[in-house]
Design brief:
Number of helices: 7
Strand order of the largest sheet: 1-3-2
Helix content: 25-40%
Strand content: 5-15%
Number of strands: 3
Distance between the termini: 85 Å
Largest sheet: 3 strands, antiparallel
Oligomer: single chain
Length: about 180
C-alpha cells in the first residue's frame, strides 16, 4: 500500500516562516512580539529593593481588614500580661475581677460604693478569658464567691497561644507582642 501525500494547507508565506522558526531559540515564557523592550528608569533602579531584600508581605486578606474594638485590644493585652505572670508549675483559677483590679489598682467593691461601674471592662476581659480557656464556672476563691472563674491548667504558657484580636495577632506573628 502506498501512502497518500498529505495535502498542504499552509500558504507559501506560512510555510517559509515555519521553516525559519527555531524551537531552541524561542522563549516559552514570553509572547512573541516586534515591540522592543521598555526603557528602565534609573531612578526606579535605585529606589526599588531587590526581591530577596524586601520585607514580609502585608496582611491583605479580607478577613484581616476588620476594624477592631480598641478597648478589647487593650484588655486582651492586659489579660496576656496577667497570664504571663502566672507560674506554670501548678493550676490557677482566674476571674475578670482579678485582672481588672491588678491592672488598674481599683477595687471593684470600692468602685461600686462610689457609684461607678466596670461592667463594660469586665465583659471585655471575660471575652478574652473565654477565648483562651472555654466555658467559665462558679467557684469560691479565698472564701469569696466568684460567679465566673476560669481554670488555668498547669503548664499553661500564654506565649504559646495566639491572640484573639487580629491587631495583637499581627504583633504575635512578628514576634513583637509583649508576652
Amino acid at each position: 500500500m502506498s501512502e497518500l501525500p498529505k495535502p498542504v494547507l499552509l500558504s507559501e508565506v506560512e510555510a517559509l516562516l515555519k521553516k525559519r522558526f527555531d524551537k531552541e531559540e524561542a522563549s516559552k515564557h514570553r509572547v512573541p512580539s516586534t515591540a522592543r523592550d521598555s526603557r528602565s528608569s534609573a531612578r526606579l533602579d535605585q529606589l526599588l529593593l531587590q526581591d530577596e531584600e524586601r520585607a514580609k508581605m502585608p496582611l491583605t486578606k479580607d478577613k484581616y481588614l476588620v476594624r477592631e474594638n480598641p478597648h478589647l485590644v487593650a484588655w486582651e493585652r492586659e489579660t496576656r500580661k496577667f497570664l504571663r505572670n502566672l507560674t506554670p508549675e501548678h493550676g490557677h483559677r482566674v476571674a475578670a475581677v482579678m485582672i481588672y483590679e491588678w491592672a488598674t489598682g481599683i477595687k471593684i467593691k470600692e468602685l461600686m460604693e462610689e457609684g461607678g461601674s466596670a461592667q463594660a471592662d469586665l465583659r471585655k476581659i471575660n471575652q478574652c478569658l473565654r477565648f483562651y480557656f472555654g466555658k467559665p464556672y462558679m467557684t469560691y476563691i479565698a472564701g469569696r464567691k466568684v460567679p465566673t472563674a476560669y481554670r488555668v491548667r498547669p503548664g499553661y504558657y500564654i506565649r504559646r497561644h495566639r491572640p484573639m484580636t487580629l491587631t495583637l495577632w499581627a504583633e504575635y506573628t512578628e514576634g513583637t507582642l509583649y508576652p
